[in-house]
Amino acid sequence: MTTTAKVQDFVKEQMEEAQKRFQVIEGEARKALGKIRRFNAKELKFLENPKATVNATVKQLGKKAEAASNEMKKRFDALQDQLMAFSGVATQGQIRELNKELHRLAKKVDGLIEKKAKPEARA
How far apart are CA 39 and CA 42, in angstroms? Predict the structure, then answer.
């Protein structure tokens, strides 16, 4: 076998291996393209600017968590009010209202006592 034939065989083998590698790469590219086609517009937008998309997602999750927290607080307060009403124990708000009413009535009583005391002082 001549040197030219050896070189040709070597080049031919290299070309065949390159073609095989190219076919493998082409197959992987087709698979990847198929997967990309299955993405919806939102997912593709994420690929364009992942940091902004993650920040927006985190912000949305934060809002949802805050809303859920507020809802749970309302439910807890309602449950607490129901428990207080059931047990017969006055809530802090009810105690404040009672204190205001007692204070108002005490002023009225003091005013009535002073009115009665004044005529006695004249006599």
Answer: 8
Domain spans in the chain, listed from the N-terminal domain onward: 12-48, 49-89, 91-123
Handedness of CA 33, 37, 43, 49 (dihedral sign): positive
Look at the block and give the residue holding tokens 């076919």.
23
What's the pTM?
Answer: 0.35
- Residue 86 CB neighbour total at 10 angstroms: 8
State both tokens at 99: 């204190």
d(CA 43, CA 33): 14
Question: What's the CA gap between 90 and 77, in Å, rounded?
Answer: 14
Q: Which residue has the tokens 């059931």?
A: 86
pLDDT in tens, 1-52: 687 788 788 888 888 888 888 888 888 888 887 777 776 666 666 666 666 6
Instruction: Please state, in angstroms and as integers, the Cα–Cα distance from residue 121 to each residue in 2, 18, 50, 107, following that order.
Output: 146, 123, 88, 21
Which amino acid appears at position 25 of this protein?
A: I
The answer to whether the Cα torsion of 97, 103, 106, 110 is positive or negative is negative
